[in-house]
């Protein structure tokens, strides 16, 4: 069978067009992921700068001011310094576990951002089990910390890893019970559905007013999950010489540093989503949607406005977490575990039972 030359050219051009379409589809699929990673990185740099400035203000110090205007480049300078430092490996440690541990901790936290709706129609993956996917993925991070402590061949590092695992298990259960209560109230486990369920009644429809006990438990448990003071027992310098980070240097130490701030940011975002209505800004006695005509505006303006609202609520809770660090003293390990198992767990169980009963009686 003989095929004419024009037909061969048409077939070749069609195949090239199909390959270009496939490449375009792959690139377009990676653009949202790349944008999310860049945004998260900028957010972490801002949080580091804010923590240093707020901490300096609380302690009546100057804080960073020489690296760039107002010291905004200090976090970038520290990151560059960690990149250029030498990575040291313990001579008798387990090298694979020592290297995999920090990466596992960072990746597990980064995957949690995929289900967070930052704005109206600005979410990477709107899943039916979004909040529980976050809990399941974030539970992997303590395994990485335990691997890091064990692979360091250092008793202080190993104790820090054990403390991290015990602390995570203790406070993960009350946090999950609070999330389950919110899912029952919203009749959904999707983060977008939870926000939209709160928007039906405006400001007074926020889950903050419907679940005040759950809000306090979630806030305390999220601080413990982020290992922030007064719950930073895995990194207690007075007892463990920085805990599971003792043998780390260079970029691997930087990964632990970034993980703590990534976890703090994702916890503050979930406080906003679950209890403060997410991107909705409802001021009592003021019809905000009609005031700015948010329902009739273009998609770009609406997305930008709702993104700003979400970030404003998030950074408010970041401010609370930073000020708590310099307000409360560190707990002992036995106090931390007793507080989680004997206090938060029974109260969160009672809150779940009350929520379930109210939902059953309302049917």
From TrEMBL:
The chain crosses the membrane at residues 23-50, 97-116, 128-148, 169-188, 255-279, 299-322, 343-361. It catalyses: a plastoquinone + NADH + (n+1) H(+)(in) = a plastoquinol + NAD(+) + n H(+)(out); a plastoquinone + NADPH + (n+1) H(+)(in) = a plastoquinol + NADP(+) + n H(+)(out). It is an enzyme of class 7 (translocase). Keywords: Chloroplast, Membrane, NAD, NADP, Plastid, Plastoquinone, Quinone, Thylakoid, Translocase, Transmembrane, Transmembrane helix. InterPro entries: NADH_UbQ_OxRdtase_su1/FPO (IPR001694), NADH_UbQ_OxRdtase_su1_CS (IPR018086). Its EC number is 7.1.1.-. The keyword Zinc does not apply. Pfam families: NADHdh (PF00146). NDH is composed of at least 16 different subunits, 5 of which are encoded in the nucleus. NDH shuttles electrons from NAD(P)H:plastoquinone, via FMN and iron-sulfur (Fe-S) centers, to quinones in the photosynthetic chain and possibly in a chloroplast respiratory chain. The immediate electron acceptor for the enzyme in this species is believed to be plastoquinone. Couples the redox reaction to proton translocation, and thus conserves the redox energy in a proton gradient. This is NAD(P)H-quinone oxidoreductase subunit 1, chloroplastic. It comes from Pelargonium incrassatum. The gene is ndhA.
């Amino acid at each position: 069978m003989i095929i004419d030359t024009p037909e061969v050219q048409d077939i070749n051009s069609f195949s090239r067009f199909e390959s270009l379409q496939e490449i375009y589809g792959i690139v377009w699929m990676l653009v949202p992921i790349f944008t999310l990673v860049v945004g998260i990185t900028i957010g972490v740099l801002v949080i580091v700068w804010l923590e240093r400035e707020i901490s300096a203000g609380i302690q009546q110090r100057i804080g960073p001011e020489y690296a760039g205007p107002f010291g905004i480049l200090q976090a970038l300078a520290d990151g560059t310094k960690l990149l250029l430092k030498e990575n040291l490996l313990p001579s008798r440690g387990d090298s694979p576990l020592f290297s995999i541990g920090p990466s596992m901790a960072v990746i597990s936290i980064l995957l949690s951002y995929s289900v967070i709706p930052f704005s109206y129609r600005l979410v990477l993956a709107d899943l039916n089990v979004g909040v529980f996917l976050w809990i399941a993925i974030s539970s992997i991070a303590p395994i990485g910390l335990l691997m890091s402590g064990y692979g360091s061949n250092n008793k202080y590092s190993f104790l820090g890893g054990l403390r991290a695992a015990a602390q995570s298990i203790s406070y993960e259960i009350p946090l999950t019970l609070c999330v389950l209560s919110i899912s029952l109230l919203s009749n959904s486990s999707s983060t977008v559905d939870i926000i939209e369920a709160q928007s039906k009644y405006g400001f007074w429809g926020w889950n903050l007013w419907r679940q005040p006990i759950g809000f306090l438990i979630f806030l305390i448990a999220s601080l413990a999950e982020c290992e922030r003071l007064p719950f930073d027992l895995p990194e207690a310098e007075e007892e463990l010489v920085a805990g599971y980070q003792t043998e780390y240097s260079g970029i691997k130490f930087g990964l632990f540093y970034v993980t703590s701030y990534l976890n703090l940011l994702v916890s503050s975002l979930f406080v906003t989503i679950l209890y403060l209505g997410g991107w909705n800004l409802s001021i009592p006695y003021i019809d905000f949607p009609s005031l700015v005509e948010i329902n009739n505006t273009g998609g770009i303006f609406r997305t930008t406005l709702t993104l700003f609202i979400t970030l404003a609520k998030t950074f408010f809770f970041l401010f609370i977490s930073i000020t708590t660090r310099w307000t409360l003293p560190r707990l002992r390990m036995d106090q931390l575990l007793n507080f989680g198992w004997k206090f938060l767990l029974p109260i969160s169980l009672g809150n779940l039972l009350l929520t379930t009963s109210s939902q059953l009686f309302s049917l």
